[in-house]
Amino acid sequence: MPVIVRESGRQGASPDLSAAQPFINLLQTFEDVVTLQQCFALMTDERIQVSSILMAAREGGFLGSDTGTQNQTISLNWRPDSGLIFGASRCVDLRRIWRILHGDALLGDKALGLALRRLSFATQRTMPEDRLLDVFIAAEAFYRKEADERRDRGGSTGLRVAERAATWSEGTLPGWSRDEVFQQMRSGYRARNAVAHGDGPKADNLKVMGKQASLDEVVRATEGIVRSGLYKAIQQLPETQG
User: Fold this and answer.
1) What is the per-residue pLDDT across 42-90, written as a single tens digit (0 to 9) for each?
2) In this predicted structure, what is the pLDDT of residue 80?
3) Residue 7 pLDDT more than 50?
4) Which residues share a beta bridge with 212?
5) Looking only at Cα atoms, what is the longest distance across the chain?
6) CA distances from 148 to 24, 61, 155, 171, 224 (A)
7) Which helix (H) or strand (E) holds 10?
8) What are the residues facing 54 on neighbouring strands?
9) Which of 19, 28, 220, 228 has its CA at a distance of 20 to 30 angstroms from the CA of residue 42?
10) What would you report as the CA-atom Rg of the chain, rounded to the nearest whole angstrom?
């Protein structure tokens, strides 16, 4: 996912990408790219990876990246063959989520912030086992906090996470019943335990809505549940200045 950065507000700045612009704040740019990844993680299950940030597009259509090594021939009007396509309503949602993530409210909720970061990491993974571990780090940070705030601390971690996910998911997951969400999170957590201890998940825990499934399908289903909960929670945060 190439991210092209340029300064458009400076008086006298070049209107095209042919001139190097070293005055760009690359640290802020990197932080904004990370935030953009988190926005996408909340809105899609597509694998989003940003390997470098473009510093300058030079003559002949060569890109120079911040890594100093990733140069490739590319035209100034290059567009990817495929990618994320958001309609008008999704763009409105993206702008709202962007403003929330740049505000102060999320900074005060460490559990929610951790859950969002781990979900973002999950969507960048190539191995389903790694993606599963990140998804459940996100789930534990988010749903255990919900349970602890209600002093509902009985039972195992997997049970509490599944119960809270089932409750929180109501109205956010079309096609899923509360019991189906509970069962999915329970079996997913057992699969997570197996992976975390260096084993392979048992067949009984590789199911989606009660039907046998691959590990990748289980991960995507579980991730969808966690994503819907985080999306619901973050949308409730105020758009504060940050």
Assistant:
1) 998 877 665 555 555 444 444 444 444 444 455 556 565 566 778 888 8
2) 56
3) no
4) 207
5) 64
6) 44, 55, 12, 22, 23
7) none
8) 4, 65
9) 28
10) 21
Q: How far is CA 34 from CA 13, 49, 75, 160, in A?
A: 26, 10, 26, 30
Residue for token pair 């309609």: 87
pLDDT in the model for residue 112: 92
Query: How far from the centroid of its chain's Cα atoms is residue 37's Cα?
Result: 6
Q: CA of 241: how far to CAs of 42, 100, 106, 218, in Å?
A: 21, 9, 11, 38
DSSP string, 130-172: HHHHHHHHHHIIIIIHHHHHTT---S-HHHHHHHHHHHHTTTT
Output the six-digit token pair for 228. Answer: 């819907």
Q: Do 38 and 118 contact (CB within 8 A), yes or no?
A: no
d(CA 38, CA 46): 12
Q: What is the spatial distance between Cα 106 and Cα 159, in angstroms, rounded to a whole number? A: 27
Give the three-class secondary structure for 3: strand
128-139 and 178-196 helices, crossing angle to 10°: 120
The H helix count followed by the E strand count for the chain is 8, 5
Element (H, E) at 193: helix 178-196
Decide the pairing of beta strands 53-58 and 3-4: parallel
Q: Are 230 and 119 in contact (CB under 8 A)?
A: yes
Q: Which two tokens stand for residue 137?
A: 């780090």
Q: CA-CA distance, 91 to 84, in Å (whole number)?
A: 11
